[in-house]
Amino acid sequence: MLNQSGLDKVFHALSDASRRAVVERLVRGPASVGTLAEPLAMSLPAVLQHLAVLQDAGIVTSQKIGRVRTCSLVPGALTDPTAWLAAQRLPAERRLDRLGAHLASDHPTQEQS
Amino acid sequence: MLNQSGLDKVFHALSDASRRAVVERLVRGPASVGTLAEPLAMSLPAVLQHLAVLQDAGIVTSQKIGRVRTCSLVPGALTDPTAWLAAQRLPAERRLDRLGAHLASDHPTQEQS
Lengths: 113, 113
Description:
By secondary structure, chain A is an alpha+beta fold. Chain A has helices at 4-13, 17-27, 33-37, 44-56, 79-87, 91-104; strands spanning 31-32, 60-65, 68-73.
């Protein structure tokens, strides 16, 4: 469970489109720094700085094997910000959520059973 | 639907514990600036600056009636960051989500029907 300063860091890390693009890429699997840098159209030092912010926030971890540094997402790193946002929904929105979840669930209806 | 710069602003607005405290208070209903300032232990200008960041991000709106400025949450303002975070969960986490939602839904079991 993140404390307030941990949540500060995670939300700050996500407040930049390039860093969100890195997260979106890493959801699909680990990637080298070079692979992550390719679509970002910025200098390697700039990319490394973004990666440092993501690592400092506990969202990304990296491992150097030989000459290649591979980054991956830290499992569960986005759970706390997700939970915080979910808790801030207005009462009316929460009722709609429950209705939507109920309609989306594949619960057997009387007709089907 | 927020663009990248809109998402930047929302996540930035949420990257501060005092601003998150304001959001948590406003989920329970509109409040005057004075009410919002009370638990924050900071100067009124500092509170107003935080409110300006939340307003700029489209999370909070305010209305001045007489001498009192009342703030409220903008409905749906947190939908896009919530959706973005939900989309970034790792495949294994998503499978657990679905299992959890299924178990939590009050779907009738064969025993009950």
